[in-house]
Design a protein that fits this description.
Length: 105
């Protein structure tokens, strides 16, 4: 839950946030640790980076789910949890979402 709250409130120490805090100084240092192409923001790192997007696609494909993945954390989580309407499955599905986030981080 803490990680979700930090993602939704832009509280993860991504390179963009580290630059805002003065820890990283050059724009070159802001590149994503996974793809080394784009600026590393929360939305990019966890949802739109080619590497993390592939992981999400593999996860959904494993469950035989076809969906369009939102590019922002809140919409991504909301989209993720509404795929199931049974309480037990929803808990499992939420756990999978957190595991994916944790592994990307």
């Amino acid at each position: 839950k803490i990680t979700l709250r930090r993602i939704l409130n832009n509280g993860i120490a991504t390179k963009t946030n580290l630059k805002k805090r003065g820890i990283i100084h050059s724009d070159q240092q802001k590149r994503c640790v996974l793809c080394n192409k784009q600026t590393e923001s929360i939305d990019h790192l966890f949802f739109t980076c080619s590497a993390s997007y592939l992981l999400w696609q593999l996860c959904y494909n494993w469950f035989r789910i076809q969906t369009v993945l939102p590019e922002q954390g809140k919409q991504h989580f909301t989209n993720h949890i509404v795929l199931w309407n049974k309480k037990k499955i929803t808990k499992i599905w939420n756990t999978i979402w957190f595991i994916m986030i944790w592994n990307i981080w």
